[in-house]
Structures are given as C-alpha cells and as structure tokens.
Amino acid sequence: MAPIAVDAPAVAPPGVYAGVANGLAVLVLLTEFAMLRTALLRAQVRVYAAQSLLVSVLAVVVAIGRDVPELYVLAGLSLALKVIVVPWLVLRMLRTALTLDPASRSSAGTEIAGSGALGVASEVLLAVAVAAFGFFATGRFHVTSPALPTTALGLSVAVILVAFVLMIVRRDVVSQAIGFFSLENGVSLASLVVAAGMPLILEVAFLFDLLVAVVVFGVLMKVHHQRADSLSTRHITRLRG
How many domains does the chain have? Predict the structure, then answer.
C-alpha cells in the first residue's frame, strides 16, 4: 500500500505592511553602504540625512500599522533633529573649517575616498561580509516581534556593524562622526523591532544624546583642523607610545 502524501502547509506571502517595513529597512542598509562609497564630505552628510529620513518614515509606518501613537512624536523629533538640525550643524562646522584654511578646501572636500585604511572597493567588500555575518547571525536567535518583521532586526544589526566599519577604516573626523551618527540610526531601527512601545521619554533622551555627540564632534573637528590644518586623523597616530 502506497503511503499517503501529506501536503505541507502553504507559506503565506508577506503582507503589504511587512513588505514596506522590510523595504525601508533594506534602504537604510543601502544608505550605509553609500556612505562608504561617497567621495565628498558634504555628500556623505546628505546621505546620512536621507538615512535618518527613512528611519523616521519607518517609525510612521509602525505607528500606523501597529497603532502606537507615541511613534508619531518620535518620528517628528527624529525628522527635525536628525534630518534637518544635525546635518545643518555638521555642514556649517565643515564650511567653517574649510573657510579658515582656503588652501585645504579642495583636498578636504575630496579626501574621504582615499583616506581609508583600505581601498574603497576593499572597504565595501569588508562591509558586505560584516553585514552578511550580522544578518544571518541575528536570525539564529529566532527573535520575534509584534511590531516589525524579524528580518528588520537582522538588517538593523547589519547597519550597526557597517557603521562600525565606517568609523574604523576611515581616517577623517567627518566620516567617523557620520559613522557614529548612523550607528544611532541602526540602534533606532533595532528599537523599533524589539521595543516599539518603549516609553517616549527614553527615546527623546536618546535623541538629545545625539545632539551632545554632535557638539563633541564639532569641537573635535574645529580643534583638530586648527592644529593639523587637515580633517585627517593620521596625525593623531603620532601620539601613540
């Protein structure tokens, strides 16, 4: 007697909400890779603003899809601070630094592409490997979330790891600052997955911590440029014992 075949349960395709959420998370990761490929300081800051805009839009999507009204306030604050205020401050500080030394204007504007410890292609390949490791390693934990698909958590970890790569391999103050700021975007994306209903006061505290970091990096950028006449951090390595 032939065995009776039992049909496996059909896997339901992802809905519109999951598709939009995963699509926005993928775009956030792609903007992180774009920061590694960007050859101009100002363009890198604009890519960060675009990434922050995507995180704000994702917060609105979660607020609508999961009925979390606190995220509307968070999205508005994120839009105002990370999309408008922080990029404007960084661009202003960069413009001031280049104005103080017009001779370094051209070199500082194109310094990013060749300022890394590795070549641009090698940096991107390293970032792809690190992002793939973070994405698949996160999937092994089987973390489930009522707010966002589990895939978004793996993508947020990939964003955080690529931000670390940007901070480590680049040797200029602006790239390291943008890497730190984009690291906060990855953390924000992860918080939307794990704890979308986190108290609003904690989320606001994280955003104001970002402003403190902007001030610290701004002072570092100004002082370092005045002492070294460059935005490169290669000169700092001479202080090692």
Answer: 1
Residues 196, 59: Cα–Cα separation, whole Å: 9
pTM of the model: 0.80
For the chain, strand residue ranges (E) read: none
| % pLDDT > 90, the chain | 15
* Residue range of the domain that includes 71: 18-227
Residue 100 lies in a domain: yes
**Ordered alpha helix ranges (H), 101-199:** 105-109, 120-139, 150-169, 173-194
Question: pLDDT by residue (tens digit) across 63-108?
Answer: 888 888 888 888 898 899 889 988 998 888 777 766 655 444 444 4
Residue 12 lies in a domain: no
DSSP annotation of 143 reads -
Rounded-to-integer distance, Cα 238 and Cα 160, Å: 29
Which single residue is written with the structure tokens 């991107």? 124
Q: Which residues of 42-78 are buried (b: 16+ CB within 10 A; e: fewer)?
A: eebbebbbebbbbbbbbbbbbbebbebebbeebbebb
Are 163 and 182 spatial neighbours (Cβ–Cβ below 8 Å)? yes
